[in-house]
Amino acid sequence: MSNWITDNKPAAMVAGVGLLLFLGLSATGYIVNSKRSELDKKISIAAKEIKSANAAEITPSRSSNEELEKELNRYAKAVGSLETAYKPFLASSALVPTTPTAFQNELKTFRDSLISSCKKKNILITDTSSWLGFQVYSTQAPSVQAASTLGFELKAINSLVNKLAECGLSKFIKVYRPQLPIETPANNPEESDEADQAPWTPMPLEIAFQGDRESVLKAMNAITGMQDYLFTVNSIRIRNERMMPPPIANPAAAKPAAAQPATGAASLTPADEAAAPAAPAIQQVIKPYMGKEQVFVQVSLNLVHFNQPKAQEPSED
């Protein structure tokens, strides 16, 4: 081999140069192909991103604006319906300026009217119930700051109890209301930040009454169906005046059927028809199960007062 290279130097040089050129071109092609492959990958990824971006329209667009407008219209309609439903409650929550003496006079007027109404309807009412939960103010006047708020609460409870009196109840057992924070001087600051004030204030109330099943159902519907004042039900306790079920008497022994005639058609007349008048009336048999007994109900409520700008309190002069 070496002899051939020695003898053919020109040809060997040409072959060596050709080999070097081939190797160089191969290496250059490999590098270029690698870069092109990497570039193709980047182009493919970019194409996919552009395609996905085009698939979902960039908001805002005409269609997205139309959908948003529909949602806003539905929201406005719902808010309008809510405002219409709560409008009577908002109107009644407006505090009317009053004096402690005027509040006491109104309390006594409501009490006398309630007692008279219950007497006409044959409804028993306890003394504590007749004061509508404000018995403490039968002998002492409320503070000037609390008079307007208590006036709202008094009107609402009086309206509710008179509605219940129209349901056919037989007795008002209890009307109880705990003191509100405004009734306690220590919990009644002179200045309050209206921005931090809750939009409404719950005023707890408990009412206990007695009646038959029908009147109790009417009373519960009356509580939840008040038109001027909003009452929410926290809990209900119901007890039947009969703690034990009525006894079941032994039914009369069944009488054997009379013998049928030996010949001819069978008689269609019951065998014990003659003894029917002696059997107990059906009304007497089912009377213990007809639900005519009295039912005792105790309802825990919240009277909702929607807070509004404070009314200016009048002077006692």
From TrEMBL:
<protein>
    <submittedName>
        <fullName>Uncharacterized protein</fullName>
    </submittedName>
</protein>
<keyword id="KW-1133">Transmembrane helix</keyword>
<feature type="transmembrane region" description="Helical">
    <location>
        <begin position="12"/>
        <end position="32"/>
    </location>
</feature>
<dbReference type="InterPro" id="IPR048049">
    <property type="entry name" value="Amuc_1100-like"/>
</dbReference>
<keyword id="KW-0812">Transmembrane</keyword>
<keyword id="KW-0472">Membrane</keyword>
